# Entry
Amino acid sequence: MPETGASSVEWRISERPQAYPEAVAAMEARVAEIRAGRAPELVWLLEHPPLYTAGTSADDADLVDPGRFPVYRTGRGGQYTYHGPGQRVAYVMLDLRHRGGDLRRYVHDLEDWLIRTLARFNVKGERRAGRVGIWIARDRGREDKIAAIGVRVRRWVAYHGIALNVDPDLGHFEGIVPCGVRKHGVTSLVDLGLPVTLADADVALQAAFEEVFGLETVTDA
# Structure
């Protein structure tokens, strides 16, 4: 196990879909270990089976089809989000005490991480004022969301993280109003015509992460 602190981040990749309640429990346990200095920070790459999560700002009216998939209430910020196969979820457990204790800067860095990841596939991801996540400009003024961000912080250790649409079933988003935004759609790397796999996305995510956060990484696949 690498030394704890800000000098190294462990990376873990789960090959099989992870049940949401068990993943959250594992995150919370790891957050406690990081806070106590007994474990290094962690980026955990995984998929979930099809499900919806409701963040702390979720509006029940945005759950369009409540019987379609399981719905989990979660302590992360944000509204309704879909998770499922073909979407790379990155749960990021970082100790913000080593990063100036600036939550807004941390969220900005997560956005930058996603933008730099997409740039590796020649995709221009963009921020939008008043809208969480990363967006793609399409034809005729259309804008589609390609990545979601949701963060929770416990005693200055951040967890939850990001979800990048690589090749999910975009029809599964129809059961919710994603992140409360009704006037725009969702897209994915494959939907944009790019033959990107989850493994490709993982390589890009790790390289871009090191650019943004400037940390050594230790891989535990």
Notes: Residues 90 and 195 are 20 Å apart (CA to CA). Confidence is low (pLDDT under 50) at residues 1-6. The two ends are 14 Å apart (CA to CA). The chain is about 20% helix and 30% strand.
